[in-house]
Amino acid sequence: MAQLTVKNVSRKVDGTDILSSVTIAFNHGVTGLIGANGAGKSSLLRAIALLDPISEGDVLIDGKSILENPQALYQQLGFVFQHSPSYGHLSVNEFLHYIAAMKGLTRDIADSQITHWLDKVNMSAFRDRMMSDCSGGMKQRVGIVQALLGNPKVLLLDEPTVALDHNERLAFYSLIKDISTSTTVVIVSHLSDDIEALADHLVFLERGKVTQIGDVQSLRQQASQALSDTNLSISDVITYFMSSVGSNLSEEVVECGA
To answer: What is the pTM assigned to this prediction?
Structure first.
């Protein structure tokens, strides 16, 4: 199980703090990033993946800086985007082989993994379909497969179920829970069902800073005691902690799954 560490990461755009001295150690399981629009959730994912420049700080996988060796990131990290790249001129198979080549996989290994993961997301029958002819849900499932090629140590999920129907979403939950036993997973989703089904830990962000962190059970107990209600849903827990962020901004090192 890889440890993903975000160390004093800051990002400024036109003088505005998008992320401010964020330090988090993600140790195992699935961590949900929670916050209002503009809190810095997707910005943090993109910073981890080096898709957006970091003004200060570092990102480490198993103690090694990915800033010092960004090429190694391709072999260690997978990213499921909210809107998967279309590459309409390629077939599903061609697109996945293109991604596999970028990750340094041999042709034989790529073939084996593509076959395996397409089967897991019920896309085997559409391997030769052009990406331009795929529905939104199909493109999203292809996007999930491309992220899993190479068996990454870290998997980042940005609104991964947005285009999936009910049955596809349930299959996705099962897949991610299985993967999370050996992979560090970080998810951003506005759907409380996604967080309820997947998250072992939660990190709350406000104005680019960490405000609260903990495992789901502990946070639920804390909110239940404060509200004198033992039947809180995950949505209730999220609402409680988001309503109290102003007095709880933190710049301390925080850990998920410690």
So the answer is: 0.91
